[in-house]
TrEMBL record:
Provenance organism: Pontibacillus marinus BH030004 = DSM 16465
NCBIfam families: hisD (TIGR00069)
Catalytic activities: L-histidinol + 2 NAD(+) + H2O = L-histidine + 2 NADH + 3 H(+)
Gene that encodes it: hisD
PANTHER family (UniProt xref): HISTIDINE BIOSYNTHESIS TRIFUNCTIONAL PROTEIN (PTHR21256:SF2), HISTIDINOL DEHYDROGENASE HDH (PTHR21256)
Entry keywords, A to Z: Amino-acid biosynthesis, Histidine biosynthesis, Metal-binding, NAD, Oxidoreductase, Zinc
Protein name as annotated: Histidinol dehydrogenase
PROSITE patterns: HISOL_DEHYDROGENASE
Length: 425
């Protein structure tokens, strides 16, 4: 791994990938085809891009039952326990409607309403992701969304991994479609004969999925434009090199474009981690992917002191941040920008990815500066509620009319005064 100084941090930063012009044109064509041809386009693109020749798109109850029967009891129990942890965490995020009454009879408030319909994209490709099922579905379920439609790419045999179907079943979602890519996003956004349109689409995917979400935004809402996964480990001399290296590689194996960065105040640890990464790469099953990730996107930033290290972390605004120092809790208040913060030796990033409960759908590419993890608030909308009493109206009418005229909006002022004139007549 390359070792750089904090003033070279720009070499490790990545912006949100906007794709190439050719990729955008491909996505636009796919979306237009789905809008015009609906199911026929979904089935055609599924044959072309996934190699699956399907007759129907929706997963049947028999397929779900078969997936559950195929799973080992121990694996199902682990999935159920993880789901319970994730549900429990998100239940604490639920907001209630509130109303505030004044002595003059005025009532002001906020009404919280779940979205009617949400689409969830679960990636396929080189791995199956039941964890992604839970993280995207569970906050929507907890929020009270009435209809949740899940889409995921099928294998060439036209199947969906058993773990993915089992996770959806455990989360309580039965509306599942075997379709992926930009075509799945278009189907969710605009509807087809099989898939009714939704109001919001969430979930990570490849560049074509990300570009499709960007294209349909405005017609529907989306969660975020997710980039490749990333981890930053903030460590001092107390950290163990083999554990730091293992955590860096846990992200590197995701994708060749994943980023794994160590920020440390210890030159000795930096050298040991670099050696450990090379040693552990040798027998990693996904070593080819991880090696490209480490060589192209990884790095070690050697800082003079802990404050410089904290400044570096905040500048990177990473998706995942592990704090492996003598007193990690003491640094929490100084960390401003990170999607998820893992404190201490035993809070390895996979703890949060799979089991602890917090959501692992996190802002990437430095967007943790202004974005949050996927949460229950993403699946509700808030309406302001205003009831003005006659007493409050008479008190404030002249002020409101004058304010309107301050902005040059005479009709606004007259709307206020029309009631005053009527009431006084």
């Amino acid at each position: 791994m390359r070792i750089v100084k904090p003033d070279e941090i720009e070499t490790l930063k990545r912006g949100v990938d906007g794709g190439t012009e050719e990729q955008r044109k491909v996505v636009q064509t796919i979306i237009e085809d789905v809008q015009n041809e609906k199911d026929e386009a979904l089935l055609r693109y599924t044959r072309k891009l996934d190699g699956a020749d399907l007759e129907t798109l929706q997963v049947t109850q028999d397929e779900i039952d078969s997936a559950l029967a195929e799973m080992e009891d121990e694996d199902l129990q682990i999935l159920r326990e993880a789901a319970a942890n994730i549900r429990s965490f998100h239940e604490k995020q639920v907001r209630q409607s509130w109303f505030d009454t004044k002595p003059d009879g005025t009532m002001l408030g906020q009404k919280v309403t779940p979205l009617d319909a949400v689409g969830v994209y679960v990636p396929g490709g080189t791995a199956a992701y039941p964890s992604s099922v839970f993280m995207n579905l569970m906050p929507a379920v907890v929020a009270g969304v009435e209809r949740i439609a899940m889409v995921t790419p099928p294998s060439e045999a036209g199947t969906v991994p058993a773990g993915v179907l089992a996770a959806a079943h455990i989360a309580g979602v039965r509306e599942i479609y075997k379709v992926g890519g930009a075509q799945a996003i278009a189907g969710l956004a605009y509807g087809t004969e099989s898939i009714a349109p939704v109001d919001k689409i969430v979930g990570p995917g490849n560049i074509f999925v990300a570009l499709a979400k960007r294209e349909v935004f405005g017609d529907v809402d989306i969660d975020m434009i997710a980039g490749p996964s990333e981890i930053v480990v903030l460590a001092d001399e107390s950290a163990r090199a083999n554990e730091v290296a293992a955590d860096l590689l846990s992200q590197a194996e995701h994708d060749e474009r994943s980023a794994s960065v160590l920020v440390t105040t210890s030159a000795e640890l930096a050298e040991k981690v670099a050696n450990e990464v090379n040693a552990q790469l040798a027998d990693l099953p996904r070593h080819a992917i991880a090696r490209v990730s480490i060589e192209n996107e990884g790095g070690i930033i050697l800082c003079k002191n802990i404050q410089e290290a904290l400044d570096t972390v905040n500048s990177l605004a990473p998706e995942h941040l592990e704090v492996m120092t003598k007193e990690p809790m003491s640094l929490l208040g100084s960390i401003k920008h990170a999607g998820a913060i893992f404190l201490g030796r035993y809070s390895s990033e996979p703890v949060g990815d799979y089991f602890a409960g917090p959501n692992h759908v996190l802002p990437t590419s430095g967007t943790a500066r202004f974005s949050s993890p996927l949460n229950v608030d993403d699946f509700v909308k808030k309406s302001s509620v205003i009831y003005y009493s006659e007493q409050a109206y008479n008190r404030d009418a002249d002020k409101i009319a004058r304010f309107a005229r301050l902005e040059g909006l005479e009709a606004h002022a007259r709307a206020i005064e029309s009631r005053k004139d009527r009431d006084e007549s």
